[in-house]
Amino acid sequence: MATAVQNRRGIIAMMMAMSLFCCNDALMKLAREAFPTGQAVALRTCFAIVVGLLMVTMMGDWRKLPLGLKPIVLGRGVIEALCAQTFIWAIGVLPLANITAIAMASPLLIVVLAVLLRIETVGWRRTVALAVGFIGVLIVMRPGAEGFSLAALIALASACLVAIRDLMTRMVGDDVPSTVISLTTTVIVGMLSLSMGALETWQSPWRIELIYLAVAALLVTAGGFCVISAFRNTDVGVVAGYRYSVVLIAVLIGWLVWGETPDKIAFAGIALIVGSGLYTLHRQRVRPDSQLKPEGDKPL
Fold first, then answer.
1. Which of 179, 168, 161 shows the shortest CA–CA distance to 53?
2. DSSP strand E in the chain: where?
3. What pLDDT digit, counting tens, does each position of 130-164 carry?
4. Distance between CA atoms of 84 and 86, rounded to whole angstroms?
5. 3-class SS at 174?
6. 144 three-class SS
7. Which of 117, 161, 225, 253 lies at a C-alpha separation of 20 to 30 Å from 263?
8. What's the pTM?
9. DSSP designation for 147
10. Are 252 and 258 in contact (CB under 8 A)?
11. Helices H, strands E: what count in the chain?
């Protein structure tokens, strides 16, 4: 068990990470007003690679760069790249609070996948909590007579990919530094984004949105390291629940920047998702069924 001071440090680090990730999402949403998905991610990746190389050098991990060619690391990078493309596309269409709420379904999906893969067992209480969480997702997605919107379905697909990525992360050996995993993933994300260029009409990059992407690259990298700090020598069941603070931050940023305010139905769905996730984390802490622990990172 971690001390109160360690948990307090972890909570602060987690809330900082969520704030950084949400600001990154807002900047990417602004950039998507000028750039297509592939170009926006590719341009941000150029800046992120520079930041990643600096981090590898500062941490003295450059000798371990060849470990990034391990199949599990490369496979994780491909899944991360698909996460980024689907998330950034959807964020250009959906309100920030809505897509953030849908993305918060990924911890619930991790538990579902863990059950299907027989990594852990789930009692009736968590089964009910999972069902409530998915009802919340459906409410936020708001299917009408014409069915679910394409953007909402793609956002949900991104959340599923995040769950798969997090499970794959646990399969990466401790010998591979986090900086190497991050840099390898960033390169793969950039390669996929460039390949999408053949299907898009790229815009001139010399505009204010390019600065948004540069800042977003710094924020998403800093957020990733805050997540690592949040889970080191802390009680995961205590710290992980604060990941849901990102929903409140997203609502605030969406209102301040775009004047977006979720209606009462959307707020009800968000409340169900957050409540379900917090209760699931609580049950994992008081009655741990396995070694499965939630991740706090987001698509690059």
1. 179
2. none
3. 788 888 887 887 655 444 678 888 988 998 898 88
4. 6
5. coil
6. strand
7. 161
8. 0.79
9. B
10. no
11. 12, 0
